[in-house]
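[audit] Reproducing an earlier prediction to check determinism. Same input, same settings, fresh worker. If the C-alpha coordinates differ from the archived copy the diff job will pick it up downstream; this log only records the rerun itself.
[audit] input (96 residues):
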Amino acid sequence: MECKDAKCPVHGSLKTHGYIIDGVVVSDKLRSTVIVEHGYTTFLKKYQRSLRKNSRVPAHNPPCMGAKTGDSVQISGTRRLSKTISFVVTKVNKKK
Protein backbone atom coordinates (compact mmCIF):
# COMPACT_ATOMS: atom_id res chain seq x y z
CA MET A 1 0.00 0.00 0.00
CA GLU A 2 1.44 3.32 -1.06
CA CYS A 3 0.73 6.31 1.15
CA LYS A 4 -0.32 9.70 -0.20
CA ASP A 5 1.53 11.68 2.51
CA ALA A 6 3.73 14.42 1.00
CA LYS A 7 5.83 14.40 4.20
CA CYS A 8 6.77 10.70 3.80
CA PRO A 9 10.51 10.15 3.13
CA VAL A 10 9.79 6.99 1.07
CA HIS A 11 6.69 7.86 -1.00
CA GLY A 12 6.70 11.65 -0.72
CA SER A 13 9.22 14.37 -1.54
CA LEU A 14 10.70 14.89 1.95
CA LYS A 15 14.49 14.78 2.13
CA THR A 16 16.30 13.58 5.25
CA HIS A 17 19.70 14.64 6.53
CA GLY A 18 21.68 15.01 9.72
CA TYR A 19 20.96 12.90 12.78
CA ILE A 20 19.81 9.28 12.66
CA ILE A 21 18.47 8.17 16.06
CA ASP A 22 17.35 4.74 17.24
CA GLY A 23 14.72 4.81 19.96
CA VAL A 24 11.45 3.49 21.33
CA VAL A 25 8.01 5.03 20.76
CA VAL A 26 6.58 6.08 24.14
CA SER A 27 3.46 7.88 22.88
CA ASP A 28 1.36 7.80 19.70
CA LYS A 29 -1.60 9.88 20.90
CA LEU A 30 -1.00 12.82 18.54
CA ARG A 31 -2.31 12.72 14.98
CA SER A 32 0.50 11.51 12.63
CA THR A 33 3.13 12.21 15.31
CA VAL A 34 4.96 9.94 17.75
CA ILE A 35 7.19 10.70 20.73
CA VAL A 36 10.46 8.73 20.55
CA GLU A 37 12.67 8.26 23.61
CA HIS A 38 16.35 7.43 23.23
CA GLY A 39 19.04 6.99 25.87
CA TYR A 40 22.54 8.40 25.81
CA THR A 41 25.47 8.90 28.17
CA THR A 42 27.29 12.08 29.08
CA PHE A 43 30.51 12.49 31.04
CA LEU A 44 30.68 14.63 34.21
CA LYS A 45 34.20 16.02 34.33
CA LYS A 46 33.96 17.18 37.95
CA TYR A 47 33.15 13.70 39.31
CA GLN A 48 34.91 11.63 36.61
CA ARG A 49 31.73 9.59 36.05
CA SER A 50 29.33 8.84 33.22
CA LEU A 51 25.68 9.76 33.55
CA ARG A 52 22.81 8.04 31.72
CA LYS A 53 20.12 10.35 30.36
CA ASN A 54 16.97 10.04 28.22
CA SER A 55 15.68 12.42 25.59
CA ARG A 56 12.18 12.56 24.09
CA VAL A 57 11.90 13.70 20.48
CA PRO A 58 8.63 14.30 18.58
CA ALA A 59 8.72 12.81 15.06
CA HIS A 60 6.33 12.70 12.10
CA ASN A 61 4.81 9.23 11.62
CA PRO A 62 3.72 8.61 7.99
CA PRO A 63 0.73 6.27 7.50
CA CYS A 64 2.90 3.70 5.69
CA MET A 65 5.20 3.34 8.74
CA GLY A 66 2.39 3.06 11.30
CA ALA A 67 4.59 3.10 14.42
CA LYS A 68 2.75 2.40 17.68
CA THR A 69 3.67 2.65 21.38
CA GLY A 70 6.44 0.18 22.29
CA ASP A 71 7.88 -0.15 18.77
CA SER A 72 11.61 0.24 18.18
CA VAL A 73 12.08 2.83 15.43
CA GLN A 74 14.73 4.77 13.55
CA ILE A 75 14.17 8.50 13.04
CA SER A 76 16.04 10.87 10.78
CA GLY A 77 16.50 14.63 10.81
CA THR A 78 14.68 16.74 8.24
CA ARG A 79 13.52 20.29 7.62
CA ARG A 80 11.20 21.86 10.19
CA LEU A 81 7.75 20.32 9.64
CA SER A 82 5.97 22.22 12.43
CA LYS A 83 6.82 24.19 15.55
CA THR A 84 8.18 21.14 17.42
CA ILE A 85 8.77 18.48 14.72
CA SER A 86 12.13 18.22 12.93
CA PHE A 87 12.38 14.44 12.65
CA VAL A 88 10.55 11.76 10.66
CA VAL A 89 10.19 8.00 11.22
CA THR A 90 12.19 6.25 8.47
CA LYS A 91 12.12 2.65 9.68
CA VAL A 92 10.24 0.47 12.17
CA ASN A 93 12.87 -1.99 13.48
CA LYS A 94 10.80 -4.13 15.79
CA LYS A 95 7.06 -4.21 16.37
CA LYS A 96 5.83 -4.65 19.94
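[audit] rerun output stored. Observation attached for the diff report: Residues 16-94 form a domain with the OB fold (Dihydrolipoamide Acetyltransferase, E2P) fold (CATH 2.40.50.1000).
[audit] end
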